[in-house]
């Protein structure tokens, strides 16, 4: 679902908890006014708003924005098509598969840890 394969030219996401709209714009190659517009069009994109209505994005928001950017700019989707792709059954299947992969990797790491402790 949140594949970064098409975002190789974008900088890596730093290990921070919150990002300002300017930082997200630089990380995703999108202007701040475009990010504000996408917030209206994509319900899943909902940054934390603090004092003075300032937006603070989290890592999952940045990944979502990169996915939206890839769908719109690289794959040629319309806003409606990108929204449907992100919310549709295919997105749920991909999320479920990701969850299963993470679960499997965790089990394997626990087995490795148990072997190392012996």
Automatic annotation (TrEMBL):
Keywords: DNA-binding. InterPro entries: DNA-bd_dom_put_sf, MerR-type_HTH_dom, MerR_fam. Residues 18-88 form the HTH merR-type domain. It comes from Rhodanobacter lycopersici. The keyword Phosphoprotein does not apply. This is MerR family transcriptional regulator. It comes from the Bacteria. The keyword Magnesium does not apply. Pfam families: MerR_1.
